[in-house]
Amino acid sequence: MAHPRPAVRVTLDGLDITSKVMPRLVSLTLTDCRENESDQLDLTISDHDGRLEIPPRGAEITLAIGWQSTPLAGFPPGFPAGVIDKGKYIVDEVEHSGAPDVLVVHARASNLLHEYRELKERSWHKTTVGKIVEAIAAEHGLTARVAAGIGSRPIDHADQTNESNANFLRRLGKQFDAVATVKAGVLLFLPASEARAASGRDLPALHIVRRDGDGHRYHTADRDSYTGVRAFWHDPKQAKRRSVVAGVSGNAKRLRTTYASEKDALYAARSEWQRIRRGIFSFEYTLAYGRADIAPQTPVTVSGLKPQIDATDWLVYRVRHSLSKTGFTTALELETKQEEADEGDQGSDVLAGD
């Protein structure tokens, strides 16, 4: 019986170098996360005859991976055929070592704009999340895509002090349990639990059965047994610091930031509580046959493992595609897909020192 073979297409500064790279390929690893700073391509290539040229820093690599032909027997229904475009990456680190001589190239997603990381000093007043994201996107010639439920949320005051736009948006995203990232020329600001691609389309659910994988790891932790999250805010009328709680106040985690309003504090408390609950259970699964079509935020269901695993709705937050002489595999890291966290004791306006 014929077996499908992995397929790769690689270009360097627009020149197709697939035929030169593949016979020498030792390993290829592509890591794709919700947060754009984690998107990285790592190539290890044999230079046994000394004929390889070292690519310059700043060179652009494009990558497509998948399978050479229509999947054959043993593949689940809906398995993708052909290669899938995985985007552009900029070379930022190169190693050459030996013997035997090998060239190692590290490249990061080309959407990481240099200007996006420049430090800025400014404040935002009486605005909304959507307007902030749109303003920053416009500064970099990007298109903003903000989830409607988050974009309309008010921001009374926020300081961007000696902080890049990238870091400021990540911090703002943490306050609202959202993903702030740049992909394909789009500045995304979407709920961390939302199964949606950069294009805005809903990501199709993936169902995994036991025979699909080479290995798995399920883990549960009590996360310090927190019962909720307490966030503080400044009450200008009484010149006091007060607090709100998402969840239950018993053993609530305390956030360090003091927010400008009760609303901002509540958003932050609820977002952190949701992150804690989402991280109580984690699941790792390595697919025996690589799936280049799987992206972060893909919803996943499982069958054929333990009841607790099968009964959980999962969400992919990191994907690692690996290709070597042993084959093409995809490793998934997943967390629980939580609905919006309860507001809990949001009305308990407690002094910070209690």
TrEMBL record:
> Per its UniProt record, what SUPFAM superfamilies does this chain match?
Phage tail proteins
Tell me the superkingdom of the source.
Answer: Bacteria
The record's annotation in InterPro entries points to: Phage_Baseplate_Hub
Where do the segments described as Disordered lie? 335-354
Which regions form coiled coils?
Answer: none
What Pfam family is a match, any one? Answer: Phage_GPD
> Which PANTHER family does the UniProt entry name for this protein?
FELS-2 PROPHAGE PROTEIN
Protein's UniProt name: Late control protein
Report the source organism.
Cupriavidus nantongensis
Q: What does UniProt list as this organism's lineage?
A: Bacteria, Pseudomonadati, Pseudomonadota, Betaproteobacteria, Burkholderiales
